[in-house]
Amino acid sequence: MVKIEVILDVVRLEEKLIIKSLRENNVELSLTNLRVNPLSWSVVGEVDLTLIRPISMYRAVYSACIRESMGIQTMNNSSSILISGDKVLTLSKLKALNISVPETYIAFSSDAVLRAGEKIGFPLVDKPPIGSWGRLVTLVKDLQVLKSIVEHREMLLSQSVKTHILQKYIKDSRKDIRVLTLPNQIIGAVVRSPDNREWRSNIALGGMSEPYKLDSELEDLTYKVAEIIGGEFIAVDVFQEDGRYLVNEVNGVPEFKGFMTATRIDVPEILTHYIKGRIKK
User: Based on CB atoms within 10 Å of each CB, which residue in 139, 178, 216, 271 is the most buried?
Assistant: First the structure.
């Protein structure tokens, strides 16, 4: 029997559905909740693969590293989680292979932030390298607002938060396309749009999803991004501008509740069959 370890820290609906699907498909499970269980490099028994599902990027990366050092396969692997979890690393990987992204500047000081604002023009988007659910992602409409953001972020201790990613505001960025993918298999795509009280389209902030039909260009782009990042089960977020696709972000521990509601695609079932087939190879 296949045995899978699932490492998590918060048991969201996604994790509940994954666990249910694995059990229904005769997969023996070992659950490790990082909120109550420590990790070590000790023997964990016979495990075919560890599924990495913490919501914290650092917990996910560290968990994957520990298991990989023990010779256990992880999904996703530590490298892909680290690269996708840090937006500067993601953008650098994409740009190295000429993947189109929004016009972007990285600023490490208040003076550099203001200079980046002058170069991009307003409105622009300011965000830190690490974070999810749209946290600290700000639509900056003028220089005074940008100065206020810099002042507030400078009061925080984390260097990551003091690092600014400043991007051109894409006029159609109130909507973005999320593509969920496995190797050689596009699971599906949705277009996400915010509710009337919010400009960000994140589902965690009340955004709405509806099914989106991919064209061959977006399919090819998704596969290329997945290969660059090195992940297996990932989500790729894309904008459209003037008829071209711009990759915005990649998620190495993707949520899919809103995706399933919109598409009626059984993501945990597809994921389970992929895992079982991967282990048998």
Answer: 178
